[in-house]
Amino acid sequence: MFRSGLAKNLPSRPLNLLPLRHLHVSKASSAKALPPRLKIDEASLEENFLKGSGPGGQKINKTSSAVQLKHSPTGIVVKSQATRSRSQNRKYARQLLAEKLEEMEMGDQSRTAIKAAIKSKKKASASKKKRRKYRALEAEKETNKQAEVELDEKLDQATTIREENTSNVPLPRDSRDH
Amino acid sequence: MPRLPTSLIRKAYSYSPLLPLLLKATRDLALAKNELRWLQEHISSIHRLRKCTPKQYLPKPPTLSQLCRIRSTGEPLQYILGSQPFGDLEILCRKGILIPRPETEVYTTRLSNLLLRHGSIGNGNVESLQILDLCAGTGCIGLSLYAALHRQIPDVRVRAIDFNPQARNLAWKTVKLNQHLGRLSPSLSKSQFDYVLADLLNNEEIAAVVQSDATFNIVVSNPPYISIPAFSRDTSRSARIFEPSNALVPPDSVGITGERTGDLFYDHILRLSWRARPQIVCMEVADLEQALRVMRAVKDMEAIDGSLWEAKQIWRDEIDVQGNECSTEWNADVNAAIIGEGSGRAVVLARSWGVDVIKHDTAAFG
């Protein structure tokens, strides 16, 4: 399964480093495609790496590599310090800014809003499913319980009849000896 | 150092019982949280690797609390994790070799962006580039310049010079790692990245590795530049105790005292630059005062040997890395443009086509 199809075309990888994994190569089956990501013109960005970080250089050994981005037309400022790598943080900051701008421009139609809507819909349907499942289980339990009660009653009746029948019969002889 | 408020320690403890340990080293809650996450990621990456290797070959992996305890003594995070991202590269860090600084990353990125911009504008004459990286250490400046430039400029060669053989070994390990990660071209070999051992303060050793007729296009250097008084006054505990002092403070020299003890290497770099005739020289400095002292030394040299540099700039910490315009002032005393905001960080000298490369900001000054 894994070694057929697309997996054949994957570049050879260091097997000693990566565990074998089932790779999902098919597209997620989302009903509607999301609107394209917003492209920000680099010229409208003010990027700052060490804003207000004070003296440094060899004297101080810092671990933060925050990136601050300012979108000059709107004045939106985002800051990213998620990773230790500045180039990664730069990507995150741009992504963050694009999301914020889109939300501002398009409101409900923005990627983040649509994603959130899909997520909440999924969650709602999941909880609905959960409720349905437990309702069914509860009902089953109820019927089982009733059946048990009925069975108990019948058994009770049966034993009383049996007791009535056996009370007149004398015990076997050998059992009396021991 | 002011005491950390108890409320802050409590707050940290409620987030994670290990966080107060990290707070001891970072003294900042947000940064401590980040460091905790990075340490966690480090440990889980070790565990991922262990899954694919027979267990008997591996030492027992450290636990998170062990690492936090080590960090709380002030040991730099980069030594614990073993590396520091620099530009697009992952630079290996070991005890005894200076950790690459974010400030260095900023001006290196700016320099490579300016060079790329110049190359793409098409002045034509940048087909091969010889870079000399003095006091290279981990080799981060030379390697990241190579990584940024070699796609556009076919023939980039870096000669890195340092007197520490461990630094050379580590630099080659860094090359191997980044080739494995696909961030450096697999063809990078000794002919493109030549790391040689020599002491910059020893003229004979330098003459042996940089021939008198050798020319370079770019000289970069992050030499030890902290003066003896500043070392005990300004440095952070972590740098002072755990990083090699020979990478921070120049050796004692007769007749030099006070702040000027930090300037020892610049004379040697400038003299070597005079011989190698580079188009651009970029040297890291501690602050604006040191930058101005270096500029005055340049001026004194020019008074004796004739003018060499057509453009002089001092780059501050907060500067546009893309090479776009930012705030600039002119210092008439040393004939230099001071660009950006914050602490002075790099002295940049240019001649010939180097002037075009760095001139974007100084257009107003001609």
Automatic annotation (TrEMBL), chain A:
<dbReference type="Pfam" id="PF00472">
    <property type="entry name" value="RF-1"/>
</dbReference>
<feature type="compositionally biased region" description="Basic residues">
    <location>
        <begin position="118"/>
        <end position="134"/>
    </location>
</feature>
<feature type="region of interest" description="Disordered">
    <location>
        <begin position="103"/>
        <end position="178"/>
    </location>
</feature>
<dbReference type="GO" id="GO:0032543">
    <property type="term" value="P:mitochondrial translation"/>
</dbReference>
<dbReference type="InterPro" id="IPR045853">
    <property type="entry name" value="Pep_chain_release_fac_I_sf"/>
</dbReference>
<keyword id="KW-0809">Transit peptide</keyword>
<keyword id="KW-0496">Mitochondrion</keyword>
<dbReference type="InterPro" id="IPR052405">
    <property type="entry name" value="Mito_Transl_Release_Factor"/>
</dbReference>
<dbReference type="InterPro" id="IPR000352">
    <property type="entry name" value="Pep_chain_release_fac_I"/>
</dbReference>
<feature type="region of interest" description="Disordered">
    <location>
        <begin position="49"/>
        <end position="90"/>
    </location>
</feature>
<dbReference type="GO" id="GO:0005739">
    <property type="term" value="C:mitochondrion"/>
</dbReference>
<feature type="domain" description="Prokaryotic-type class I peptide chain release factors">
    <location>
        <begin position="38"/>
        <end position="136"/>
    </location>
</feature>
<protein>
    <recommendedName>
        <fullName>Prokaryotic-type class I peptide chain release factors domain-containing protein</fullName>
    </recommendedName>
</protein>
<comment type="similarity">
    <text>Belongs to the prokaryotic/mitochondrial release factor family.</text>
</comment>
<feature type="compositionally biased region" description="Basic and acidic residues">
    <location>
        <begin position="135"/>
        <end position="165"/>
    </location>
</feature>
<dbReference type="GO" id="GO:0003747">
    <property type="term" value="F:translation release factor activity"/>
</dbReference>
TrEMBL record, chain B:
<dbReference type="GO" id="GO:0005739">
    <property type="term" value="C:mitochondrion"/>
</dbReference>
<protein>
    <recommendedName>
        <fullName>Methyltransferase small domain-containing protein</fullName>
    </recommendedName>
</protein>
<dbReference type="InterPro" id="IPR002052">
    <property type="entry name" value="DNA_methylase_N6_adenine_CS"/>
</dbReference>
<dbReference type="InterPro" id="IPR029063">
    <property type="entry name" value="SAM-dependent_MTases_sf"/>
</dbReference>
<dbReference type="GO" id="GO:0008757">
    <property type="term" value="F:S-adenosylmethionine-dependent methyltransferase activity"/>
</dbReference>
<dbReference type="Pfam" id="PF05175">
    <property type="entry name" value="MTS"/>
</dbReference>
<dbReference type="InterPro" id="IPR007848">
    <property type="entry name" value="Small_mtfrase_dom"/>
</dbReference>
<dbReference type="GO" id="GO:0032259">
    <property type="term" value="P:methylation"/>
</dbReference>
<dbReference type="GO" id="GO:0003676">
    <property type="term" value="F:nucleic acid binding"/>
</dbReference>
<dbReference type="InterPro" id="IPR050320">
    <property type="entry name" value="N5-glutamine_MTase"/>
</dbReference>
<feature type="domain" description="Methyltransferase small">
    <location>
        <begin position="127"/>
        <end position="226"/>
    </location>
</feature>
